[in-house]
Design a protein that fits this description.
The protein is α+β, with helices and mostly antiparallel strands and 796 residues long. Among the domains are: 177 residues, no CATH class; 197 residues, Glutamine Phosphoribosylpyrophosphate, subunit 1, domain 1; 69 residues, Penicillin G acylase, beta-roll domain (Roll). 34% of the residues lie in helices and 18% in strands. The chain has an eleven-stranded mixed β-sheet with strand order 1-27-2-3-6-7-8-9-16-17-21, covered by helices on one side. Strands 4, 5, 22, 23, 24, 25 and 26 form a seven-stranded antiparallel β-sheet that branches. Strand 23 and strand 24 form a beta hairpin. The longest helix is centred in the first third of the chain and has 28 residues. It is globular, with a radius of gyration of 28 Å. About 1% of the residues have low confidence.
Length: 796
């Protein structure tokens, strides 16, 4: 045999053997679906059933047994996701991913969440500790019953760290990082505007609301008047090249949030109240949530159906047969920046109402895979940690709800036994979680809204700007009492809605503050849809959630057509084609629409140009400051209002310096919107679906390279956009959709992206994803059982 042929055979055999070994190892890390397993600590047997989508029903005789079994199931299906959540909150990602995760760890170590989780556990009620301990034991048993480590750890060559009770609290903290302003960016952004622009300009650029507001209390807010040239004027500079004519902003104004609403029995076709909820988050593989039905049999009979968060042993949103509930991010003000007054002769001390205090500095050791550990010094005040700051200015400390010992608890578990809206509201007001709008419906046809999560009591300041707390009477004075929480119960119209925008006014708004509310366009559309009928049904709920009507963009479409006059089209064939496509649009963010895509991108260009023209002094201090950056700061979310007023009034003194007229600015936005690659793809084929393509990836996708398609979701074109109920971007959108009437769960629907399992060889890895893409109303309740696993108490 020739040497080359012999070598080829050997190489082929090695590759084949390695492939077979990899498949064998991968299959060995699949969850156990059938048979029986001994689970130490169980008081009685527990049965785990799965339907054709992998939706889990866990049935046992006690709540503690269910917590233990939930941990077992979560670990077998989703442990890597749970691990990333606890590591993110604790600032321990670099120990697994190396230097690439070090900056994230540095930022999150500021919060010392592992230390805080240990403190919370030490002060927790015995019942909560028991549930967390049972869950942790179940997680570790689930891992121990896998023949090999979960597949992600095989790919990384990493070890699995056991689960501890406090790790579930870290998962809760990871949601605080996701949903709250964890560094006081909004206050810092407003302070930056204050330092660089006149006060009337700051008020104009960041108004409290707009004509799009649709609150449950009060009316919409007017945008402040356009400041005159005596207040602020932009200097002409025709040589300036507008930055905003380059790359489009990336954020599309998305904020972690959601839609939810409740419909009372009086305006329901069935006479039963309903809750609808779709929580908008970053989309990834596996999905944020995990479907589960929990059933306790016997004297403590209980049934819960909904979504859980892997790492936490309770149902987050769903129905218990008597009440149903869902969440949206509240965007109240839950963070404050404190200006520290340093001792003039000793900068290691700062002023407090009781006198001078020394900073407490702690060395946080960050392990880094493949590298030496790094030490991060975190200095704390009596109020909270000191933020990294600019030289030459007083440092800032961070006061954040998440840092308080009682900001996290498992009180939400009491929703399992709540029987009506009053009981559910009481549970919500005692729950420790990122402050959320919660809407509730009960089996008697009643509905309610309130805040779930702790609300701080402020004194001596309004919380909108960084403030010194060195004087007596300034700061937080504990938590708002549950009886004083904002609440709306059984409103006369029989409808409640929230969509991350302002919900209340007056005294209730002063209690909640403004943490950067979303533009009210989405809430406005939901309100309109819910008032179209006094005989609403479950199918109406899905139709509203899937509403991709472009009514918000209609005035922008009219603006495009008005600016593209016959004179502007002469010798511009691409403009003529642009106008033709916009003129014939269907007012929907549908995958086949070219006109919508052009209007959407035109609006983005115009907003970015207008904002750029007004904020030159800000960029002198912070180069690169843009509308996109202001959205991340949380100060530009209402900019639609002032921008539209400027476009309508067209004051020359506030025109971008590079343009001779507002018409020229608008035409430049049109020209920049025409895709550069029209030679390869004609403009009439540049559909919304070519831009809005699903990019739902596994965290290891990039590292797996050619194998990425095996772990990522398909690149489907997606209907929907921002500022409409069907919020949809490539990697952002509804992490679940459901609607249900408590007591009539069999009529409800549910779907979510990706699937139940985190294992790519599982039949449940993508099961249900197609229904989410297409908006199909799959059942809220689990279907017929196809897999049956018994968890038995360990034998002595």
């Amino acid at each position: 045999m020739r040497p080359f042929r012999r070598s080829l055979i050997i190489i082929t055999a090695i590759v084949l053997s390695a492939t077979i070994l990899a498949v064998v190892l991968l299959r060995a890390s699949l969850p156990i679906l059938d048979g029986s397993v001994e689970l130490a600590g169980l008081a009685d047997p527990v049965v785990v059933q799965r339907d054709a989508l992998g939706v889990v029903t866990i049935r046992g005789s006690s709540r503690l047994d269910l917590a233990r079994a939930t941990g077992f199931v979560h670990a077998q299906d989703r442990f890597f996701q749970m691990d990333l959540a606890r590591r993110r909150a604790a600032g321990e990602l670099a120990a697994m991913f190396g230097p690439a995760a070090l900056e994230t760890d540095r930022e999150n170590r500021l919060h010392r969440f592992r230390h805080r989780a240990e403190q919370v556990l030490a002060h927790a009620e015995e019942a909560e500790i028991s549930i967390l301990e049972a869950y942790a034991a179940g997680v570790n048993a689930g891992l121990g019953n896998l023949p090999v480590r979960p597949w992600e750890y095989l790919a990384l060559g990493a070890d699995v760290e056991p689960w501890r009770p406090e790790d579930s609290l870290l998962v809760s903290y990871s949601m605080f990082l996701e949903l709250n302003d964890s560094l006081g960016r909004r206050e810092a952004g407003l302070e930056l505007l204050d330092e660089t622009l006149p006060s009337p300009m700051v008020a104009f650029l960041s108004p409290e609301g707009t004509e799009w507001d649709a609150p449950m209390q009060g009316d919409s807010y007017d945008v402040p008047a356009v400041p005159g040239p005596d207040v602020f004027a932009v200097e002409r500079d025709p040589t300036r090249v507008p930055i905003a004519l380059g790359k489009l902003p990336a954020t599309q104004e998305a904020v972690p949030g959601s839609n939810n609403w409740a419909v009372g029995g009086g305006v329901s076709a069935a006479g039963a109240a309903m809750v609808a909820n779709d929580m908008h988050l970053g989309l990834r593989v596996p999905n944020t949530f995990y479907r589960v039905r929990l059933q306790v049999l016997g004297e403590e009979e209980m049934e819960m159906t909904g979504v859980s968060l892997p790492g936490i042993p309770i149902v987050i949103a769903g129905s218990n047969g008597r009440i149903a509930w869902g969440f949206t991010n509240s965007y109240g003000d839950w963070t404050d920046l404190i200006v520290l007054e340093l001792h003039p002769e000793d900068p290691s001390r700062y002023r407090t109402p009781e006198g001078w205090e020394s900073f407490l500095c702690v060395d946080e050791r960050i392990s880094v895979a493949g590298k030496p550990a790094v030490t991060e010094v975190v200095c704390e005040t009596i109020w909270g940690p000191v933020l990294p700051g600019d030289e030459g200015r007083d440092p800032r400390a961070l006061k954040w709800v998440a840092h308080e010992v009682d900001a996290v608890n498992l009180e939400l578990r009491r929703m399992e036994s709540a029987g009506n809206v009053e009981e559910a509201v009481a549970v919500a007001n005692e729950t420790g979680m990122p402050a959320q709008n919660i809407v509730i419906a009960d089996h008697r046809g009643r509905i309610a809204w309130t805040i779930a999560g702790k609300i701080p009591l402020r004194a001596g300041f309004d919380g909108s700007r960084p403030t010194s707390w060195a004087r007596e009477g300034t700061g937080w004075s504990g938590w708002l009492a549950p009886e004083d929480y904002p609440k709306i119960v059984d409103p006369p119209a029989g409808r409640i809605w929230t969509a991350n925008a302002r919900v209340v006014d007056g005294a209730d708004l002063r209690i909640m503050g403004d943490g950067g509310y979303a533009l009210g366009a989405r809430a406005s559309r939901i309100r309109e849809l819910l008032h179209r009928s006094d005989s609403l049904s479950i199918p109406d709920m899905l139709a509203a959630q899937l509403d991709d009507n472009a009514y918000f963009y209609q005035r922008w479409r009219d603006l495009v057509l008005s600016v593209m006059t016959p004179e502007t089209l002469t010798q511009h064939p691409e403009r003529r084609e642009f106008r033709r496509l916009v003129d014939r649009w269907r007012p929907r963010a549908s995958v086949d629409s070219v006109g919508f895509r052009l209007v959407f991108e035109f609006r983005q260009r115009v907003l970015a140009l207008v904002f750029e023209g007004l904020t030159g002094p800000v960029r002198d201090k912070v180069p690169g400051f843009s509308l996109d950056e202001s959205l991340r700061y949380g100060v530009g979310r209402q900019f639609e209002g002032p921008a539209w007023r400027l476009i309508t009034d067209r004051p020359v003194h506030l025109l971008h310096p590079a343009f001779e007229s507002w018409e020229a600015l608008l035409l430049a936005a049109v020209d920049a919107t025409v895709p550069e690659n029209t030679e390869q793809t004609p403009l009439d084929q540049q559909t919304w679906g070519r831009r809005n393509v699903a990019d739902i990836r596994h965290p290891l996708s990039a590292a797996l390279r050619i194998f990425a398609p095996l772990v990522d979701m398909p690149a489907d074109p997606l209907d929907g956009a921002t500022h409409m109920p069907r919020v949809q971007q490539s990697a952002f959108g509804a992490s679940e959709r459901f609607a249900v009437s408590p007591g009539r769960e069999e009529e409800g629907y549910f779907h979510m992206p990706t699937g139940q399992s985190g294992h790519p060889l599982s039949p449940f890895y993508r099961a249900g994803h197609r229904a989410w893409v297409e908006g199909e109303a799959t059942p809220f309740l689990p279907g017929p059982t196809v897999h049956h696993l018994w968890l038995d108490p360990a034998r002595p």
